[in-house]
Amino acid sequence: MSLKLFKLSVSLCAVMSSTTAFSTDISGEDFGRYNSRALSHQAYDEKKFQSDLDLAIANSLKDHKISAFNKRLSDTEALQAAIRISSQTNQEEKKYQSDLAQAIKNSLLDQKSFPLYDAFVIGSGPSAHSFAANAIQDKLNIALALGENPGGAINVKTTVRNFAGLEEKYGYELAYDWIQKSEKLGVPLLQETVTHIDLTDSIYKIQTSLGNTYTAKSIVFAQGTKPRPLTAKNIDRYKVWEDDAWHQIGDFKRAAKDRKVLVVGAGIDSVNKVKNLIEGGAHKVYIALRGSDIPAHIQELKELFPGKVEVILNKELDSIEGKNHRIRGVRMKDKSFLAVDMIVNAIGRIGNQNINIVSKNPFKKDSQSDRFIVSADFMTNIPGVFAIGDIAAQEDSSGQVIQDDGRAAIAIGKGASGERGVVRYLSSKKVKKS
Ligand SMILES: Cc1cc2nc3c(=O)[nH]c(=O)nc-3n(C[C@H](O)[C@H](O)[C@H](O)COP(=O)(O)OP(=O)(O)OC[C@H]3O[C@@H](n4cnc5c(N)ncnc54)[C@H](O)[C@@H]3O)c2cc1C
Q1: What does the alpha-carbon distance between residue 376 and residue 380 come to, in Å, rounded to a whole number?
Q2: What's the gap in Å between 141 CA and the centre of ligand 1?
Q3: Quick one: 116-226+351-428 is in which CATH superfamily?
Q4: CA-CA distance, 406 to 248, in Å (whole number)?
Q5: Given the CA of residue 157, which atom of ligand 1 is nearest to it?
Q6: I want to staple 265 with a disulfide (CB 3.0 to 4.6 A). Which of 126, 347, 359, 384 is the partner?
Q7: Which residue has the higher pLDDT, 83 or 281?
Q8: Coil, strand or helix at 205
């Protein structure tokens, strides 16, 4: 046989065996296993799944080549051919292998068809898991994207004391409990972050960081909040402390030793921040407030640490002054100067709006806090799009936005109420549950 003819017959064998690989080996037990795993959305296994798949493809190719050779050629001829192939068609072989792997992956992706969900939940803090637990009970077909912080904001809290019915727990233990409960209930937990949403059709499309596209009749935002960034001239040159997360408390306290500290704002977590600063040995803590009212929790701090904590009213930060990244003080908008050498941001949190949304109509948001304004049913102004937990804000009858956030139990309540809202929405639309 001429080399040309031989190559042709070998490539024909290869094509035949690749087709069989799709229809026999891979689409048999292995294919079924991979496919059902893909369908079960266990994204935790995604990487292992890919490498198992590559291995299966390699094995399948090897088997098919051997049987193809055996059918057409004698043992000696097959051996000679194999040697010639490996030396002469190395490049083609590599390309063939990678094309085949890609083709199988594409075919798997095609088959990985996701159901049309009743509700797609974005987030995995207490509100999302509360929504999920209720939705499963109501037999809604849902999926939940965990995002980058499974368990949510409470993860960073040391001891949580204000949770009814529970002994004191570390924040991360609570976060773990929520996820485990959802797992037990059979909620499809996707280890994916939602990047894009398309709301232009009646069926909503959700795209994630893994490149998957899901469809749903309703969407539930539960992405929580993030610290509101502090703005001041020169701020990029200096370290501004932000979180009193458990893994940072040691550093935070050490940094405070003998320092004059400015705490900007009186957000919900400013109390802990001030206590940690004093425990760390801060020389003095100034709390700068924009307005002229002292909130009760700040007044208590003043009384708890007389002489150590001073509240300065009607002050707004203009710029930070210092040298070689060392803070010397701050200039306020009224031009006054305060000598401090450490700054802490406690101006509260804003909605974690981190998804590209394509929508015919804009969302109604609270301009101050960048949260979605929702109805009593936790629906935004876009039908079928809900917001629960800390990213949701309700308006009272006078149009005043109610900032009920910063408590895990409130987030859980909003999750449960939002679920009732989704149920009512689906039945009012007479949309059959999937
Ligand atoms: C430092 C600190 C201490 C606290 N201490 C207490 C306390 O002691 N007691 C108390 O009751 N409350 C406490 N809270 C408040 C409580 O943690 C929050 O009120 C609660 O976690 C809010 O829940 P949530 O469901 O709205 O969202 P979060 O818990 O904020 O969770 C948001 C979730 O959304 C996910 N996500 C974000 N973007 C995406 C995306 N694009 N795609 C997919 N997922 C996404 C994240 O991964 C995360 O899981 C504390 C908060 C902080 C920050």
Answers
A1: 10
A2: 24
A3: FAD/NAD(P)-binding domain (3.50.50.60)
A4: 20
A5: 3
A6: 347
A7: 281
A8: strand
Report the nearest-CA residue for atom 5 of ligand 1. Answer: 157
Look up tokens 């039908």; give the residue: 383
Query: What three-state secondary structure class fits 383?
Result: coil
Candidate from 129, 146, 156, 157 with most ligand 1 atoms within 8 A of CB, to mutate: 157
How many CB atoms lie under 10 A from the CB of residue 206? Answer: 25
Nearest to 81 by CA among 92, 70, 95: 70
Q: How many residues in total does the chain contain?
A: 434
Cα separation values, 128 from 33, 150, 257, Å: 30, 11, 40
pTM of the model: 0.71
- Residue 66 to residues 14, 16, 79, 97, 197: CA-CA distances in angstroms? 11, 13, 10, 15, 48
Q: Which of 168, 390, 405, 412 to mutate to test the pocket of ligand 1 (most atoms within 8 A of CB)?
A: 390
Can you tell me the mean pLDDT for 297-326?
Answer: 93
Task: For residue 379, give the DSSP letter.
Answer: B
Atom from ligand 1 closest to the CA of residue 130:
25
Determine the 3-state secondary structure of 279 from DSSP: helix
3 state SS of 156: helix
| Residue 219 near residue 206 (C-beta atoms within 8 A) | yes
Euclidean distance between CA atoms 157 and 361, whole angstroms: 37
Tens digit of each residue's pLDDT (9 = 90 or more) over 141-172: 999 999 999 999 998 777 888 889 988 898 89
Q: Which CATH number applies to 235-347?
A: 3.50.50.60
Q: How far is the CA of 124 from the centre of ligand 1 (A)?
A: 8
Q: Please name the helix (run of DSSP H) or strand (run of DSSP E) that holds residue 121, with its range, or none.
A: strand 119-122
Separate counts of helices (H) and strands (E) for the chain? 11, 26
- As a whole number of angstroms, the distance between CA 255 and CA 365 comes to 37
Buried b / exposed e over 64-98, threshold 16 CB at 10 Å, is: bbeebbeeebeeeebeebeeebeeebeeeeeebbe
Residues with CB under 6 A from ligand 1: 122-128, 145-150, 152-154, 156-157, 160, 162, 193-194, 222-225, 244-245, 269, 352, 354-355, 389-391, 405-409, 411
Compute the C-alpha angle 168/174/177, nearest 5°. Answer: 130
Strand stretches in 184-314, DSSP E: 189-190, 194-198, 204-208, 213-216, 219-221, 225-227, 240-241, 260-264, 284-288, 309-312
